[in-house]
Amino acid sequence: MTAYCSKCRRGKVVDYHVEPEETWKIVVLNRWPVGKLCASCFDVEAEKARVRYSFANVSAQSWNEQPPPRNPYKRKR
């Protein structure tokens, strides 16, 4: 099951933590649940807040490991 970003609704394929920890609280401001913001959305919000940060403990899911999309044209019997 793929997690989705709370802001843009894209599938999150990158799992990350932000250093220093206070940066997450400053950028997110309790608008989105913890860990539910993709890296690109976090980057945009951090730039708006003019906060310096770095990603730590970054791990990614390969596109090959993701389940294939459902075929909406497949007939049900």
Summarize the structure in words:
- The chain has 77 residues and is α+β, with helices and mostly antiparallel strands.
- The chain has one domain (1-77).
- 25% of the residues lie in helices and 17% in strands.
- It has 2 helices and 2 strands, in the order βααβ.
- A two-stranded antiparallel ribbon has the order 1-2.
- Helix 1 (21-28) crosses helix 2.
- The longest helix is centred in the middle third of the chain and has 11 residues, at 39-49.
- The radius of gyration is 16 Å and the shape is elongated.
- The model has no long low-confidence stretch (mean pLDDT 78).
Question: How many strand elements?
Answer: 2
Percent range for helical residues? 10-25%
- Order of secondary-structure elements: EHHE
Strand order of the largest sheet: 1-2
Poorly predicted regions are: none
Distance between the termini: 26 Å
State the helix count: 2
The number of domains is: 1
- Structural class comes to alpha+beta
Mass-distribution shape:
elongated
Radius of gyration: 16 Å
Largest sheet: 2 strands, antiparallel
Q: Which strand-content bin applies to the residues?
A: 15-25%
Give the overall average pLDDT: 78
